[in-house]
Design a protein that fits this description.
Strand order of the largest sheet: 1-2-3-4-5
Order of helices and strands: HEHEEEE
CATH architecture of one domain: 3-Layer(aba) Sandwich
Shape: elongated
CATH class of one domain: Alpha Beta
Distance between the termini: 64 Å
Number of helices: 2
Strand content: 25-35%
Structural class: alpha+beta
CATH topology of one domain: Inhibitor of vertebrate lysozyme, Ivy
Helix content: 25-40%
């Protein structure tokens, strides 16, 4: 009888230990949302306008936003016919940046 009680306590202790180890190994993911402020399309740096003309010929800048912390711009481009819009991200120097939409 004593052997059964000792074995039961041993297995119970191992179960509690396994639960503690699992709880200690969890990680928390934090998503930081990028804040953009609307800006006038006419006030964009020339390098941005030139990059859009070169790389997105036939599109126009419908809306523009700036992330003041990183000096990165979010542009909403519209096709010539106005049938389609899409977002692109660019630096003030006219260099394209890949941006994860989930952080907007």
């Amino acid at each position: 009888m004593m052997t059964v009680a000792a074995a039961t306590m041993l297995f119970a202790t191992q179960g509690i230990s396994a639960q503690t180890d699992t709880a200690m190994n969890t990680e928390t993911a934090v998503t930081v949302k990028t804040e953009y402020t609307a800006v006038e399309v006419d006030s964009l740096p020339e390098a941005i306008s030139e990059a859009v003309e070169t790389d997105f010929a036939g599109s126009s800048i419908k809306e523009a936003y700036i992330d003041d912390k990183e000096e990165k711009y979010k542009l909403v481009l519209e096709t010539e016919a106005g049938a389609e819009t899409h977002k692109v991200y660019i630096t003030k120097e006219g260099e394209w940046v890949k941006e994860d939409d989930s952080q907007e």
